[in-house]
Design brief:
The protein is an alpha/beta fold and 222 residues long. It is built from 8 helices and 7 strands, in the order αααβαβαβαβαβαββ. The protein is 44% helix and 22% strand. The longest helix is centred in the first third of the chain and has 15 residues. The structure holds S-adenosyl-L-homocysteine, 3,4-dihydroxybenzoic acid and magnesium ion. Magnesium ion binds next to loops.
Length: 222
Amino acid sequence: MNQMIWHDVDDFIVSRLLTRDRQMDAVLAANRAASLPAIDVSAAQGKFLNLLVRMSGARLVLEIGTLGGYSTLWMARALPKGGRLVSLEYDALHATVARENIEAAGFSDLVEVRIGRAIDSLAQLHAEGLYPFDLIFIDADKPSNAAYLDWALRLSRPGAVVIVDNVIRNGAITDPLSGDRSVQGSRDAFELLGSNPRFAATALQTVGSKGYDGFAIAIVEG
Ligand code: SAH
Ligand code: DHB
Ligand code: MG
């Protein structure tokens, strides 16, 4: 088992289960043209997020970490009429590319990209009363994962779905001595998800075109 076969199987999954998707292809092309890092979720993962939004019936979705809006659009597509998505992004270039992609895809009315440190934008959403969110996708700076989960409790309703990306990191997550701050941040996220009774959580290891990583997934208890 190696990266080559994971990649081939991802291609197989996409070829059998996803339809040809010029809109999503255009987003990735725009992201690469603008030299954004190629760390968007994979297509299969994007569809997974899309299905989670539909399965949960989410109407108000929060994303932390927009990049070029690829995962954003996968989730926005799943929203019902009247649904809305807010995505938080620190980097002004990333946010600009994302807004262009969202506009080109025809989702500007549903999606708002807010520029700034997510920790500040989360406080701002709280101050504005723009919550409770039904589904929250956390995919930004990993050292802040536990802080984002704390905010997720404040900004969500009982029954809300919370997903955290990149929590396995090629297996490094099990290393308590890891010098990687992202790994330590995700270890903190596991501690919080496992110890706070307001979360019921598990995690899924994933392999595929993005290598070996995984998602944590949780529901917010009443
Ligand atoms: N969700 C995207 C990928 C996000 S990559 C997708 O799958 O398509 C992580 C993003 O988080 C980057 O764009 C990075 O600029 C942003 N980010 C990093 N630190 C941040 C912070 N403190 N606040 C908000 N966004 C941040
Ligand atoms: C990185 C960040 C991500 O959100 C991701 O999905 C993959 C990699 C990174 O910062 O390396
Ligand atoms: Mg990610």
